[in-house]
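Hi P.,

Sorry for the delay on this. The queue was packed all week, but I finally got your sequence through. Input first:
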Amino acid sequence: MRLDAISPRRALLAERIAPAWRKPLAQLALAWTTILALFAADLAAMLRQYWDISTYNHILLVPLIIARLVHQRLPELGKLSPQAWWPGVGLAALALFVWLLGDISGTATISQIGLMAALQATVLAVLGPRVSWALLFPIAFGMFLVPVGEELVPALQMITAKITITLTHASGIPAVIDGVFIDTPVGLFEVAEACSGVKFLVAMVALGTLVAHVCFQSPARRAAFMAVAIVLPVIANGIRAWGTIYIAQSQGIAFAAGFDHILYGWIFFALVMAILLSLSWKFFDREIDDSFIDACMIQQAKWPHTLERWNGNSWSICAAISLSALAMLAWSTEARSVEAQLPDRIALPAIEGWTRTASVSAYPWHPRAGGADHKLVATYSDDQGRVVDVVYTLYAAQEDGREAGAFGQGALPEGSEWRWLADAPAQGGAAGIRMQALGTHQRVAHTWYRHGNWTGSSRLRLKFANMADRLLGTPQATMMLMISAEDTDGQDAEQTLADFRRSLAPLPNWMDAVAGLD
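Then the structure:
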């Protein structure tokens, strides 16, 4: 009796799916499951970012939004017939190659973009170009599942600082700005990473993209709405930071900090979002009962005919995608085994005009170089009493957890009291920064990377060089050199570093000699 009662319900559920869709949907589910199982480590890393990093908490809603977008198209989608398409396999393989580049270079963002693009390309391969055209926006919206945005923090900090100081002066408060630090009569304020507004901006871009699609039909109105959705939160965040400074002048820093946390965390985002929607709702030009797609128009369109000559067997196409994924995983395993041979021990040599000395600094500086195979730290002084700190690291290979150019690695240690203040002039292709700690201590640091015959400061070029080495099986060591000096009344940091740098010339040969590669 129980089986008899349940069977009709199961039949009703199956009948809700058009016959032409049942096998393709099962195949798509199987292909996605295979990809996600093979790349489970990347999926788990993305899920941890969604849950643990507040900038990406909103991404937890994106799968639900995509499901709703697809649901809105169901009546029209049922009129189309999926057709498996061989070129989609090539696009999936290309996306997985992007994953490979990110994986072997330790760049999680690139590997995650590749994984998401592979899932999108699989839809195209299994369901074909016409159905993918009908699902174009939901498919594209899936790219918001990739957690990106933290890279914008430094630029947003500077923009917020400039807006804040402008409003502070306009409100009659005397203040002096130095990088991301704003000195006012009641105290020193820092536009820290948490004050950059990146959380708000990233979520607003995703929301703005959704609203622009759902509520507008005119491309011009969509573009105008997106421009406002990007600019408004940046300006609003500057106003929020200024409000903190303004309130602190009369109520004190402690009160302003608590008020800012409550306002920004619970009210501010909703308020600005409401303002954006209230300003734009009168310009919405999509009626509530308008269909998002026209199945008849898609079915009758002539341009897909040329593409559909490459339609193929759906099971063969699913198998080809799975084999591509396995091939990329095997290539990654082989590429990750490529490492340079390094000496067991290395040491910093004597430097003409400079003498090794004990480390002496007004405030400690400990740059980060995680995963380095060798790390040398020393302090040098000259006969004028000038002092330079030197950090030299050597890597047999570059990958996640042991990468010279990784985010948070290098001269400006993440999680310390040191804050970026300004770029500093540097010689020989170095990256120079001026940093400050506790509002009073300043130092300048120069950083070089060396890989093969190249010496410079471009993290992007270093990544490309590492990708090429691992793809081609060419093992080459990577070096990172950081020199730093405090800026004090008795020592000009920039001049001190320039003089020290001349003592290392030619720098590429000096770095190779330390690594035992000369």
